[in-house]
Amino acid sequence: MTILDAYRITREPFYRPVGREIELFEAAYASRMPVMLKGPTGCGKTRFVEHMAWRLGRPLVTVSCHEDMTASDLVGRFLLDAEGTVWHDGPLTLAVREGAICYLDEIVEARQDTTVVIHSLTDDRRILPLEKKNEVVTAHADFQVVISYNPGYQSVLKDLKESTKQRFGALAFAYPSPAVETEIVMREAGVERRMAETLVRIAERSRNLKGHGLEEGASTRMLVNAGLLVARGVPVEEACQVAMVVPITDDPDLREALSGAIAACL
Question: What are 85-101's pLDDT values in tens digits?
Answer without folding.
Answer: 999 999 999 999 999 99
